[in-house]
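Look at one record.

>
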Amino acid sequence: MTATYPQAATRTAPVPAYRAFDVTVSRITRLSPHFIRLTFTGHDLDLFGDTGLDQRIKVVLPLSANSAAQLGDDEDPFGHFPRTEDWYARWRGLPEELRNPLRTYTIRAARPELGEVDVDFVSHGETGVASAWVNRVRTGDSCVLVGPDRRGDSARVGVEWKPGGATTVLLAGDETAVPAISSILAALPAHVCGQAFIEVPAAGDVLPLPAPRGVDITWLPRTEIGEPEDNHGKRLISAVTTGLSVESRRTMSEAGFDRADLDALGARDLGAGPLWETPGSEPGDGMFAWLAGEAHAITTLRRHLVRERGWDRRRVAFMGYWRAGSSGA
């Protein structure tokens, strides 16, 4: 007699939405005076789950970029970075001298069939840890990208471009938003119209961007090459507030909020917390605005749209990618 036993059910662990990918720099391309594209390659980048648009990732810099780090000649500069699902909490729990610097960037392009990912960086010399690193990096150097796994259960995690059925769009941002704006413009349906305002450090940083025929792109160089930069965001604010042709001059009641709501909005905008708010649901047809870049400039533009032009704040996504005077991750 042969005994038979029921087979145990096979359990498949869920794939985390975001995880670490160990990569190396395979190409370095100077796009303009201030834009540098790094192409990363890795053995499992075929699983990288890029959805295009404004997909955010973390670029983990080598431990040697941390001024508190003291590396030995044979020490792995990424050896302490956690590869577990709870990587962020574990990273935060490391001693400062063992905590790799990391920064948030937008994927410019992904070619999973080739195991490649492009990330565009803004170079401002030695003014920041990431800018200093990208100016020194060489092909073959190691890096870690924390991004989406295409097998995960949330394909759009890290994507804030959610215009729903909007047929008229406004895009506004500085150089840190150029990769996201570039991808969004390329993905827009042909029937969409609107405007894009992009502030960059210099005239040489103007890049060719494909977009639907009905979307006007306005580049706003702050300086000519070799001149000192003036106030960051000044040209962007001026251009949007004076040159925006997309109008929505509805009354406050038509827009769906009241004065108390606007006062609360102002309090949040002026606070010290993260300046980041996106609509909870995708709007129907009509207008949609996407604003990203230096926090003060983006907050000013958001306030202008909502308070002075009467835009429904549920149709405005705004992201303070960075704050002048701060170098947070």
